[in-house]
Amino acid sequence: MNVENTEQEVSRHRSWGHRKRFATGFNVLTSLILAITATILLNYLAAEHFRYRRDVSRKQFYSLSERTKHILTTVKGTITAHVVFSVSKKQKETVQDIIRLLEEYRQYAGRNGSLRLIIKQVDPDRDLATIEALKQKFDLRTADVVLFESGGHSRCIAERNIIKRETRWATPGTSLQSVKTAFCGEREFSSAILSLMENRKPVVCFVKGHGERDIEDFNKGSGYTDITRALHFENIETRSVRLTDPAGIPADCDLLIVAGPRNTMHRSEVAAISAYLKAGRSLLLLLDSGQVSGLEPLMTEWAVGLPDEVVIDRTSGLNAIIGTGEEIYIHLFGIHPITADLTDMSMILPRPVLPLETASPAANGRDDKKRLTILASCSENGWADTANSTTPTYDPAIDRKGPVSVALAVERGPSGGINIEVKPTRIAVVGDSGFVANGQSAGANVDFFINSVNWLLQRDTLVAVGPKPYDQTALLINDSQLWWIFMLVVIAIPLAVALLGIVVWLRRIW
Predict the structure, then answer these.
(1) Tens-digit pLDDT profile for residues 162-200
(2) What's the distance, CA 501 to chain centroid?
(3) How far apart are CA 62 and CA 469, in angstroms?
């Protein structure tokens, strides 16, 4: 009897021990689930209501500058950023950088109750309906852009303006490759937001009536429809004007452009442009070699010389001969907002644009003194050919030795912090009009033109934020190695820990 009671007692204790261990394990599992749930809820509440963010990275790559923060706390309205990039391995890192930076914009804009920033990622290969809608609404014809829109206005930023690249040798003896050197996203995005919030679109007027480039001409190599579209993406209105019309230069014209006239202007037209400049306005001249525009005497008054010569430069290995359409390549740039971040561009046999006074930085000088800055020059191996022959050769007796300037900026009026209510007169003169014609308006050429327009429109804030350099050190792994790392770190190790925990728990129960 005692033996039977003892066996029953042992069986009862053993059964109670199994139930106790099972209950303990169940309680632990329930507590773990509740802890995870609480953590998720706390993170959700923190993300929705707690706005504190801090970039702890060494380079502060996505940190916003004080200038951008000021813009985000002062502008009002709803802005939508369409990130139109193909989701490919090549663009993956670029898209991630753009999205992360825009997320910082969105988070900081949340502090301003009057501003709402919406981010939409669009894959042109998959989101066909969205792409078609953007084409119809904004005349979008290319991918790899970030399109900002607000209140019917838009600003389109190409990938080449966001990512600065250089062509380098990967290793000695190998082929050249394009290397990312700087990320200019903050400068471009802040500029876009600021321009969209302008009270009115700036008006740019193209002069016509003398054989100039036509903003409605679609012909390749001659028309200006491509660059006109680029101006529209900058939230700029464009018009064509005739100086002989009774109204003359419109009162709301913010910038007058004379692009490649083939016929000489009448004295009355030159006088109208002169009066326009004396009123403190801005002018962009694109004057080709071999042409007499009639503006040469006026430009002399502004210390700009336009000799009847052709700039030749064979540094790039090209045999540039008049009439062949071959290009010369510009690598020498002055220090100026127009040329910021430019490394090279091309022109088609430009004419010299020479400073007739000592060139001086635009930041120095009195109100009444003209401040000249050489924007672009040919190399020291180039020259200004005086003979204008079909087979040009350098003649030290008559030709002008390089570097020879082919683009010049002139400013007269207030500079710095004085008389800020009075705008200075600004002029940019370029010795070629074909460098942004249809089929040529790409890369640094269009950047130079757009930067010139923005500077002439007094949009100096568009270049106020510096680029973020990329680190050149990287862990080079192929797709197979990346897959194994993912399987090990994300799948294998967590699964092994989970299986070990289950085994231990089962052994304790049984």
Answers:
(1) 888 776 665 555 566 777 888 888 888 988 888 887 778
(2) 53
(3) 11
